[in-house]
Write a structure and sequence with these properties.
The chain is an alpha/beta fold. The protein has seven helices and 13 strands. The relative contact order is 0.13. It folds into three domains: about 5-70, OB fold (Dihydrolipoamide Acetyltransferase, E2P) (Beta Barrel); about 75-235, Rossmann fold; about 250-310, Probable gtpase engc, domain 3 (Ribonucleotide Reductase Protein R1, domain 1). The protein is globular, with a radius of gyration of 21 Å.
């Protein structure tokens, strides 16, 4: 019996059990072979949006993913809830990670930003930060907000400022997205879907409101999805992420993913050094000399502690 030929495509939407694969024959809803789950039991989702795959088409028009091509990179986090400890692949094969925060409702979470930056750095993916809701910048938080934008821009990360509801700053976002496969990650309520609707109104993504009681967002994006952009490139819209736990990073190597630590890593007496208790530590000396900020050094210590404990707390 002749073996059916395989179709090649990219996973553009993943709902857990089903994966929409864009192929030359159109978009085909597909399942995965059981062997992938057996082979990757430390991962909650063996197939992720952005994966290049080969599928076998069924008579009913659905498909079965037979092969997952090697990934050039991935953005992962430590899964929470009943799957805690396993890795969740948020997206595969991306060119840029954008961490989205809002100026207010909800307020920025530097611990979250730093954790996503660590995972992006660990897979050598360029990253930047988008701050939304500039129109809600209250004088009481203005100094803290200015400090954060100066901090991350000073570290070399692009910082974009927008009001997604009015279109302010959207041209900058369009230019930054153009020609690349981008992923936008952040907590619920920061305006990810509103931003993407402003970038491409034809998307018509569902948006929600922030609770006035908790000042936190409600989930409107349920599954990760990849969309083509009118000016070229792609963007992945992700569900709101409350916790971003570190995976596949050891305690001794964490400091390599804090960019401002790197000039001082070779100045430590002990190699490797975790820069929290060891004597004659170049990173600690740089911190004491104000060459490393309080915010980032203590964020580093929080992440280091969570790695040692094997937890997924967000290090607020």
């Amino acid at each position: 019996m002749e073996t059916p030929s395989l179709l090649h495509g990219i996973v553009v939407r993943s709902t857990g059990s089903w994966h929409d694969v864009e192929t030359a024959d159109g978009r085909i809803p597909s399942t995965i072979r059981g062997k992938f789950r057996l082979d990757q039991q430390d991962v909650t989702n063996p197939v992720a949006v952005g994966d290049q795959v080969s599928i076998q088409k069924n008579a009913d028009g659905t498909g079965v993913i037979m092969e997952i091509k090697p990934r050039r990179n991935k953005l992962i986090r430590r899964a929470a809830g009943r799957r805690a400890g396993r890795a969740q692949v948020i997206v595969a094969n991306v060119d840029f990670v954008w961490i989205m925060q809002s100026v207010n409702m909800p307020t920025p979470n530097p611990g979250f930003i730093d954790r996503v930056l660590v995972m992006a750095e660990s897979f050598d993916i360029p990253a930047g930060i988008i701050f939304n809701k500039l129109d809600l910048l209250h004088p009481s938080v203005a100094d803290n907000y200015a400090y954060l934008t100066d901090l991350y821009a000073g570290l070399g990360y692009p910082v974009l400022e927008v009001v997604a509801t009015t279109g302010q700053g959207i041209d900058q976002v369009k230019a930054a997205f153009e020609g690349k496969t981008n992923v936008v990650a952040g907590p619920s309520g920061v305006g990810k879907s509103t931003l993407l609707n402003a970038v491409d109104p034809s998307l018509q993504l569902k948006t929600g409101e922030v609770s006035t009681r908790t000042l936190k967002g409600k989930h409107t994006t349920t599954f990760a999805s990849l969309y083509p952009l009118p000016d070229g490139g792609y963007v992945v819209d992700t569900p709101g992420i409350r916790e971003f736990g570190i995976r596949e990073v050891e305690a001794w190597e964490l400091s390599h993913f804090f960019v401002e630590f790197r000039p001082y890593l070779e100045l430590c007496r002990f190699q490797p050094c975790t820069h929290d208790h060891e004597p004659d530590c170049g990173v600690k000396e740089a911190y004491l000399d104000d060459l490393i900020s309080d915010e980032r050094y203590y964020s580093y210590l929080n992440i280091l502690h969570s790695i040692r404990l094997g937890t997924h707390d967000v290090g607020r």
